[in-house]
Amino acid sequence: MIKINKKINSFNKIITTEGDKSISIRWALLASQAEGKSIARNILKSEDILNALKCLKKLGVKIKLLKNKCEIQGLGINGYKYKNGTVLDAGNSGTLARLIIGLLVHSKKKIKLVGDKSLSKRDFIRVIQPLKKFGANFDSNNGKLPIIIKGTSKPKSIFYEEKKGSAQCKSAVMFASLNTEGNTIIKAKKSRNHTELFFKNLKLPIKIEKKKNFDIITLSKTKKIPPLNYNIPSDISSSAFFMVLTALTKNSKLIIKNVNINSSRTGVIKILKLMGIKVKYKNIKIYKGEKIANIQIESAKYIKPINCSPKLNSSAIDEFLVIFLLAAKANGISYFKNLSELNQKESPRLKWGSKILNYIGIKNITTNDSIKIFGNPKIKLNKKIIIKNYLEDHRVFMTSVIAALVFGGNWCIHDKHSIKTSFPSFLRIVNELRK
Ligand code: S3P
């Protein structure tokens, strides 16, 4: 638990957040099937990644996690070595669970996949359905974990239409295609494209046709994956908490170094700009197809309300909770719609957005897939607020801390350990800015 009863003072600082979670997990999974030793620097050392490494070790992969690098000795495509009935625990990570199933479509022996109480409530039909078409068998708890996977030795290539804008579903099918004869074709609604960039960078057989609202991805069988050395950039989703903190703290300025600004992830930046907040990129560079920059952000005197286009939903999906705090302080009504996917995350986050706004006295009208937020630029709190979230969602915790630091009041926020999932140094950085 953490207690906060004082607003943060103005700051002018430079910070570095932590390695990108999506890229860290993809690197580890691909490295495990590469030929030879792969090395990653700045890999995120959070529980989601540690669970990925533990799962891979159970599949016979040799891994060394050192202070400044992670080394994985890949076993080649379909080279995992494990006993029948091996149990893999994905902990809290939907990305790990859904992506690793893609790699297990070819598993000869039975594997059981389990997760924590939050992950056990999440939907896996979305990956079981397309992956079944490859010929694998899944025995699940009504589409939820635990799932028993029995792969096929003769996977068939498939056509799959991904309609949710889910990078996890798209990536699971892409991983399954690695060892499948023939062409697998995915018609995918736009979503984060780190897997595609990895495939291109590794020169795996991939063809992408970009259309206005979707991509057509054609994949064929891969003979081998070369080792992949990678310097992982910082995560924009972790950085977003500090962007909003700066925007909502008077006379403040922040530079966040070396952040991944891949356009499939920068919905938060577009939303901040539309809400009148000054954000700039400095030192832009391209690294293995990913765009990276230092992000400079300044506090806002005036926050404009937003009628947020659903086109931005997928590229800001993990940032909405903290974006709602900006809307709370905006000068008017903000509206976010077509957001049913937000209730499919580690906890039902649209509901949590509404709950946090209710705690801080901001009127909102929330449905199953939308939220209308009646902003109050003069918002000031002096009451006691206790936040305890049953599913211990890391982003609910971090959003609550940012709310406490900018709106005042007397807060008691439970589930501090949840930050270990994605951003273990979150509170250390908060304290650095509070000095
Ligand atoms: C992720 C994709 C998103 C996102 C999650 C990470 C990924 O989930 O919310 O935190 O790394 O592919 P969906 O694919 O379910 O939208």
Care to describe what's here?
The chain folds into 2 domains: 2-18 and 233-434, UDP-n-acetylglucosamine1-carboxyvinyl-transferase, Chain, CATH 3.65.10.10; 21-219, Enolpyruvate transferase domain (UDP-n-acetylglucosamine1-carboxyvinyl-transferase, Chain, Alpha-beta prism), CATH 3.65.10. 29% of the residues lie in helices and 28% in strands. It has 12 helices and 23 strands. The strands form 6 sheets. It has a 4-stranded mixed β-sheet with strand order 2-15-17-16. Strands 4-5-3-14 form a 4-stranded mixed β-sheet, with helices on one face. The chain binds shikimate-3-phosphate (S3P). Shikimate-3-phosphate binds next to helix 5.
Question: How do the helices and strands line up, and which of them pair or pack?
Answer:
Blueprint: E1 2-4, E2 12-15, H1 21-32, E3 35-41, H2 47-58, E4 62-65, E5 69-75, E6 86-89, H3 94-103, E7 111-114, H4 125-132, E8 137-141, E9 144-150, E10 159-162, H5 167-177, E11 184-189, H6 194-201, E12 206-210, E13 214-219, E14 230-231, H7 236-247, E15 253-260, H8 267-274, E16 279-287, E17 290-298, E18 307-308, H9 320-329, E19 333-336, H10 349-359, E20 364-366, E21 371-374, E22 381-387, H11 394-407, E23 408-413, H12 426-434
Helix pairs in contact: 1-2, 1-3, 3-5, 4-5, 7-9, 7-11, 9-10
The protein binds shikimate-3-phosphate.
